[in-house]
Structures are given as structure tokens and as C-alpha cells.
Known about the structure:
- The chain crosses the membrane at residues 223-241.
- Residues 1-22 form the signal peptide.
- Keywords: Membrane, Signal, Transmembrane, Transmembrane helix.
- The chain has helices at residues 6-21, 35-39, 147-157, 191-197, 214-240, and strands at residues 44-53, 63-75, 90-97, 113-120, 132-134, 166-170.
- The chain folds into 2 domains: 6-170, CATH 2.40.50; 213-242.
- It is globular.
- The chain has 5 helices and 6 strands, in the order H-H-E-E-E-E-E-H-E-H-H.
- It has a 5-stranded mixed β-barrel with strand order 1-2-3-5-4.
Amino acid sequence: MMFPSTAALLTLLASVAAPALGQATTAAGCPATDLKCLITTAQYSLRGSVTSNTANTTDTPAAYNATIAVSCVYSSFTTPTGAGAFAGSDILVTGFGAAKAGCAGLAANPGDEGIFFVYVANRVGQNGIPYYSVFNPCAGNITPNSTANLATMQSILSNPTYSTNVLLKGTGCALPAPTTSAVPAPAAATGSSASAAAPAPAATTSTAPLVVGAKSAGVVAEWTALVAVAAGALSIFTVAFA
Length: 242
């Protein structure tokens, strides 16, 4: 009697266990490039590198498993929140390749490093070793751990709304510092645009118009006449006492 290999048996178990444990947490509602949706829906978001896979075996030519060395477990968005105790360990993840009809599949080649979204695919007893399955099996390629993607991760995990979902377990959890954009000073306006851009003068409580026209000229004329009269009086006074 022939017994299936370990790889084939794990793939079979994943197909049986997934509906019970992971069907409600698949990425059916998340586009492959919607990082926020994937992070805030997956059971685990982690960073790791593929150390090996079973893609070239005769057991699973279309769908295969991969071993991933996990350097960080960023978060868990399930109820209850997962512990992420596998940070720093190698985990077995099923569901790579053409594991699901009608989608591009998800490649996991040895040496690939990036952000993975997974969920626990089997029930284990105490001290048992779980294996996992990919949360986004139709993504085509794994999500690269680029600066932009890590900045998105940082933005989400720093949101107080998700504080209970943050794990950040492992040695490879460094995320970019939050960026703040300075508000540029308004450019100085010139010419006609300066007049248009100039702020309106502050309102005054007085309703009387400012006197800047003929009345000012009249005041000057009155002062001129007074000076002339004073000069004439001074002349008479001088003559009288000469």
C-alpha cells in the first residue's frame, strides 16, 4: 500500500482545514495591491524570507508549500488577537502556486524576501506545531518590503485604533520613522497680484471717513493765514518801538 508523501499530505490537510479555520479570513475582499486591506484583515502580517519550497517535487506540481524564516510578526487582526510566538522561527506555509482556480496564484521562490499574510491552517494540541496558509493566494507575487510598503505598515500600526493588534515581535521589525511635511510660507506677490492678494484693512469702529483731501488743504491754508497775520503784527510792534 502506497502512502502519500509528507508534502502531499500537508497540502491535503490544508485543503480540508482551511474552510474551517481560514475561509472567513481569506483576502477575497482585498485587491492584491491594497496593503491596508490586507494588513487589517489578515490573521498575521509578517516579514520573512523563503528558505525552500516543494514546487519541483512530483507530489505537488501545481500547488506547493514553502518554508519561511520569519524575522518579524507585525500584527494580528483576528479575534482574539494571535500571539505571533513563531517570530524568529521557520514556519511551513501552504497554498503557494496555482492552489486556487481562477487566480494568478502566489509565487514563493527560495531567496524571496518580503511581507507575507498568513493564517493558521490546522488545529494543534498543546505543544503541537501548526502550519499556515497564505491569506492572499491570488496576489501573483509576494509584497516587497519596500520603503513605501513599510511606511504604510508604520502608518497603520501607529494608529491608536489598532493598538491591540500590534505585535512587532522579532528582530526585523524596524519601520521608517513617521514623516511630517512642513507647510511652505506663502510666496511674496508682485505687481497687480500683490494688490489682489493684499489682506483687507482691519475694520474700525468709527464710521467717519478719513480726511485726506480738501479739508486738509483748508487746514493748511488757515495756518498759513495765521502765520501771515502774526508776521504783520510783529512788524507793527517793531516799528512802534523803534
